[in-house]
Write a structure and sequence with these properties.
Layout lengths: L1 E3 L7 H15 L4 H14 L14 E3 L3 E2 L3 H14 L2 E7 L4 H16 L3 E7 L4 H6 L7 E6 L2 E7 L3 H11 L11 H15 L3 H14 L4 H13 L5 H14 L4 H13 L3 H14 L2 H15 L1
Parallel strand pairs: 3-5, 4-5
Antiparallel strand pairs: 1-2, 4-6, 6-7
Helix pairs in contact: 1-2, 1-3, 4-6, 7-8, 8-9, 9-10, 9-11, 10-11, 11-12, 11-13, 12-13
């Protein structure tokens, strides 16, 4: 593991977020790498004084993770999500010539680009992962942010791979794991939402929020469920979206929900600014959604 120091100082809230993420992330490292990270944290006293004059936190690069099974895959993705790191995935096959040709490029990026977790897996050893990610050609590269696949790249194109990595590199808002109880309630809410039962989804998200009040994802989910209800309570949706972006100011989906709520309240200028924030921070998919909503609110 290499520690690389950026030139600019972070604010107190960012230092606190990094400290929390570092604790979660450290548990997923090898013992030697974990000692290095914790030694850094101790040396710079990140946990004792969070002020704008404190030393800058580390930018961390790591070797490529080889996921040999679903458990290792899930562990890598959960750790990256908790630490606010983008995941770049190389889905390859041992018999694939282009896969072998581009592998050194992937390895080089892993050693130089920070706030990214690089994971590769053999499609023949892990067919369930390949099927879940709809891998039909090798090599295929995926960009995953906060657990969601945001872009797919097929083929051994070094320039395109560089663009994929640098477009989606973190840091992203760190998402701390929910307790098993809160996670179960969130999944129930998601099931209701997918079935169009938005009031029931809202209720399940509310139960989960009572267990994890600082989860901006749950707040965003509840705002979304409220907005999709038959009779939306735009004030309630706005309150949830406001709290979500307070906790995670760069979370683009939170700004989209905020814009939708403001639009519902007839506050079009504020809605437009919220959609602009989403475009600034979002993945290509979220940027597209926010751009379409911005165009409508301005028409």
């Amino acid at each position: 593991m290499a520690l690389v120091f950026p030139a600019t100082a972070w604010h107190a809230e960012e230092q606190l977020s990094l400290a929390k993420a570092a604790l979660l992330f450290a548990d997923c490292l090898s013992s030697s790498a974990r000692r290095s990270l914790l030694a850094y944290i101790d040396a710079f006293s990140l946990f004792s004084h969070f002020d704008s004059t404190a030393p800058t936190p580390p930018r961390i690069t790591m070797p490529v993770i080889e996921a040999n099974n679903v458990t290792e895959w899930n562990t890598a993705l959960r750790a990256a999500k908790a630490a606010g790191r983008t995941v770049i995935v190389d889905a390859y096959a041992t018999w694939c010539g282009p896969c072998k040709a581009i592998a050194p490029v992937f390895d080089k990026l892993a050693s130089t680009v920070d706030w990214v977790t690089f994971v590769r897996f053999d499609v023949d050893k892990c067919p369930s992962i390949a099927q879940a990610k709809k891998i039909t050609a090798m090599p295929t590269f995926l960009a995953i942010r906060n657990g969601e696949t945001v872009e797919t790249l097929k083929g051994a194109d070094p320039a395109a791979l560089n663009r994929l990595v640098y477009t989606h590199a973190g840091p992203n808002p760190p998402i701390a794991p929910l307790s098993p109880e809160a996670e179960a309630l969130k999944e129930e809410g998601n099931t209701f939402f997918k079935g169009g039962e938005f009031e029931s989804a809202r209720d399940k998200y509310s139960e989960a929020i009572s267990l994890a009040p600082e989860s901006f994802v749950l707040l965003g989910n509840r705002a979304f469920a409220i907005l999709r209800s038959a009779s939306p309570d735009f004030e309630a949706a706005l309150a949830d979206a406001d709290e979500a972006v307070r906790i995670a100011p760069t979370w683009a989906k939170g700004h989209v929900r905020r814009g939708e709520a403001l639009q519902g309240l007839g506050r079009k200028d504020e809605a437009a600014r919220a959609f602009e924030e989403a475009i600034k921070h979002g993945t290509p998919q979220v940027k597209k959604e926010a751009s379409e909503k911005l165009e409508k609110v301005r028409s």
